[in-house]
Amino acid sequence: MHEQERDFLCVVRDAFRAFARRSSIVLGTAWAFAFAILIIAVWAATGPKFHYSDTWQLIINTGTTIVTFLMVFVIQNTQNRDGKAIQLKLDELIRALKGARNKLVDLEDLSDEELKKLEKEFQRLHKQSQETDTHVAKTESRH
Prior knowledge:
Blueprint: H1 2-27, H2 30-45, H3 54-96, H4 112-142
């Protein structure tokens, strides 16, 4: 029973992942935006016919609420997958580069305090780098 339940969950997860990916591709186009504008224009144009009634307003409110609610899950799924893929690619680059600090591989698992500390370290390194660059530029301009 447990194996069948797991298989079912995997099928549902894979189906949603495929749906979310295709949806984000289609709904992220200019055509989808134009279609949404068209729906709003048609709705607005029908206002006088329905005397701008509560029902007429409820139609657009309900429709946009449902679409927004569902899109939250699609967008979140897509962002989670993209974020994970980017993280894995960056981890691979860090591991592959000589001199890179492998402790940076799992930054997303650090606490907020640890991230702040690391951010300050990188700000310090950046400032040092700028000072070195300025010093080198001045030395080169003298020659």
